[in-house]
Amino acid sequence: METEPIQRILKFPEGFLWGAATSSFQVEGGIDNNDWAEGSRNGLLPPIGRACDHYNRYESDFDIAQSLGHNCHRLSIEWSRIEPAEGKFDLMEIEHYRNVLKALHKRNMVPFVTLWHFSVPIWFSESGGFDSRSDAPEIFARYCAFVVEHLGDLCKHFATINEAMPLASNGWRRGTWPPFREWPGFEWALSGVPGAMPLTQKNKSISNIYKYFRVMSTFARAHNAAYRAIKKVSPGSEVSIVHQVLVFHANNNPINKLFASILNWHWTYSFMAKVYKQCDSISVNYYLHKKFGETRVYEKSDMNWDIYPEGIYQALIMMKRYQKPLYISEAGIADASDSKRADYIQRLVQHMHKAIEEGADLRGYMYWSLMDNYELAHGYEKRFGLIAINFDTLERTVRDSAQVYARIARSNSVDNF
Ligand code: BGC
């Protein structure tokens, strides 16, 4: 019997997009009127300050990305810049983002814009925000439509919400992100789930578990309202939602399998069921997995997360069921020494290829992150960047692993496993 020759090189479909991602308040600097800036002023989050000063340095940062063979880039729009007061929109800031998008086009990089990546304007959070404003979905949809109306000629791919589930979980259950709501039962209920961060004492209340479930539905309604509003002003835009797939899996024990199914249902399928019909494509973020009944001890990243790039394959196969084009909008590793990143990226990419071979309609990958940045509740200590940032001098240094990724991007292929 003839066996198929082993492919030495795994080729990606023609036109596959390779790039990296950032988000506004994590890199731009100088943002003082959103809920994260407020949280840091109140001592609940590490100071943000000028971050990477990407607001002023985007041209030279994009020069580096282009030199690394990137042909796409994901960024987010800072809602508090565009709508600094309720219903008042700032056209100067729109002009800024128009220039950012033009800078990408000039470098032949396809832009992917996320309309909301975790931070909201203070006027919105202080008036109840997604926590309690009954018109929150419509307010959000109005902002989204405004942005797309003004940027839609420069960008086709818009995502409404970045990672509703981690936001609900950290903001309304763990109390580590704005609005710092904590459900005291959490630690007991999900002990052992990776990515755990220290709990704050803020807004601790049993009733937060109800608010946690309610806010997930509010996020779904907000996405659906935004989808409709965007389509009215720009029918040709491709609208997606960014979902972080936390891969729950198990050994052969049926109880462990049941746990994994329930958690996949809770974290991914029940949320996606509410939004996928209002998605032209789906953007997938992958970082974490949890295997029930696992005895193997994994090597860890600087976040103390298991190094398990193989999980991206499972994440993509899980998302394939929605039969939409898929993009990896984030996947990456915190690795200050840069000793693990290159291997991590190669293994991620090999497993993306495997998912494509099994029918996932994957069209692009954006590594998290283009540069070191404000890593949320961890401040500036964790280093995800292809580009290292010296936060004292703001000097940029391209890491060696970025060159390994550049070879993948330029050749549109990766060496086989
Ligand atoms: C978020 C990013 C974050 C990254 C690493 C993702 O969940 O979208 O904002 O920096 O994870 O923790």
**What Rg is obtained from the alpha carbons, in whole angstroms?**
20 Å
The computed structural class is alpha/beta
Order of helices and strands: EEHHHEHHEHHHEHHHEHEHEHEEEHE
Distance between the termini: 24 Å
Relevant CATH superfamily: Glycosidases
Name the helicity range: 40-55%
Number of helices: 15
Describe the 3D structure.
By secondary structure, the protein is α/β, with parallel strands linked by helices. The protein has a single domain (about 10-415), classed as Alpha-Beta Barrel (TIM Barrel). It is built from 15 helices and twelve strands. It has helices spanning about 25, 35-40, 55-65, 80, 90-105, 120-125, 130, 135-150, 165-170, 185-190, 210-235, 255-275, 310-320, 340-355, 400-410; strands at about 10, 15-20, 70-75, 110-115, 155-160, 240-250, 280-290, 325-330, 360-370, 385-390, 395-400, 415. It has an eight-stranded parallel β-barrel, surrounded by seven helices. Strands 1-12 form a two-stranded antiparallel sheet. Strands 10-11 form a two-stranded antiparallel ribbon. Strand 8, helix 14 (about 340-355) and strand 9 form a beta-alpha-beta unit. Helix 8 (about 135-150) runs parallel beside helix 11 (about 210-235) and helix 9 packs antiparallel against helix 11 (about 210-235). The longest helix is centred in the middle third of the chain and has 26 residues, at about 210-235. It binds beta-D-glucopyranose. Beta-D-glucopyranose binds near residues 26, 166 and 376.
